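Entry:
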Amino acid sequence: MSMIFFACVVRVRDGLPLSASTDFHFNQDFMECRKRLKALSSILAQYPSRGTAKGRDLSIHFLSSGDIACMAICSSSYSTIMAFCFLEELQWEFAASYDTTSISLASRPYAFLEFDNIIQKVKCHFNCASGSQMKASWEKVEEELKFRPPVQLKLEDTELMNGMTNGGHAGVHVEVVPTYRMQRVTPLGILSLVLNIMCGALNLIRGVHLAEYSFQEDHEGIGNVIAFFLPFLACVFQCYLYLFYSSARKMKTFVLFFSVCLCNIYLYGLRNLWQIAFHIGVASLSSYQILTRQLMEKQPDCGV
């Protein structure tokens, strides 16, 4: 009989689920326990590394270390020592498969969904194994739990902590802020960023030198100084618009492009036609890259 019903790996700092088992249990108690596990995962940073939230029929166990935490929903009659043996094994497998950098950079739920195969394998092993078959792990974990017992919670507490409705009291409203993931950066996009940075640097250097001269001798050259600094700022914002999503991107892109064009035309005399054409060409390439880099389609939640 299965004693471990569900397991997942989450990121400690924000509760982002990284991978989870794909078992389907549709009874009401399990669904409620899943909700409370999700609530608990978002506040794991507040707790010690080990903890147990006991319920009448189901319990949640968690084990955190570094950036990740492993969590499991088990039968309340299942041995706490065996549950933590399972979580330690799961944590070791995950740490061996993924480095801290990839964990930190994960930006969407279930970014390591392929780890589900290992979760299933370890879960099946523990559901079939007995304490005597795992004597070494059992004794090690038993000693650790005696020295540092897990924090004890109630399943109802995790519901309250997440601002959910409990006992007829209104829950706290939490506004979900949508996150936007852009399509991959292309080689041409990288080229446009490099050229944009180069043009921005040229504008800044020329502007600083001209500013030093203008403030000392030629006060009428302030317009030229501004005409160098504005394209510099435009280059910075073009890089930002290419890398990150922003509302009204199209309008902002055209405003920045026309600013670069007008400023370079104004600087005719300080720049020759080839230099002006180069700066406008780079601005055109950057604008095209911004407008063609779209948002990724919404990721499916894969039923977990």
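The beta strands are 4-11, 17-20, 50-54, 58-65, 68-75, 151-154.
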